[in-house]
Design a protein that fits this description.
Strand order of the largest sheet: 1-2
Shape: flat
Distance between the termini: 9 Å
Strand content: 5-15%
Number of strands: 2
Number of domains: 1
Length: 66
């Protein structure tokens, strides 16, 4: 498996959105995404402590072809 294929299967999930002001969280998320730029193909997603969000993230992971 090529490195690009592996990276395209990565999802970095951020948490604790309920503990920060939305604007502060978005600023941190942007900073994190800039740090991830070298990992072309990797993605981020937000987990907001909701069951439906967890299932959406899992569905995304499980639907990827490996």
């Amino acid at each position: 498996m090529r490195e690009d294929d592996i990276i395209s299967n990565l999802i970095f999930v951020t948490t604790h959105w309920d503990r920060v002001e939305l604007n502060q969280g978005i600023a941190r998320e942007r900073q994190f995404c800039r740090a991830l730029e070298p990992l072309t193909g990797a993605r981020t997603d937000r987990f907001d402590n909701e069951t439906k969000t967890a299932w959406r993230i899992l569905d995304t992971l499980l639907s990827q072809t490996i």
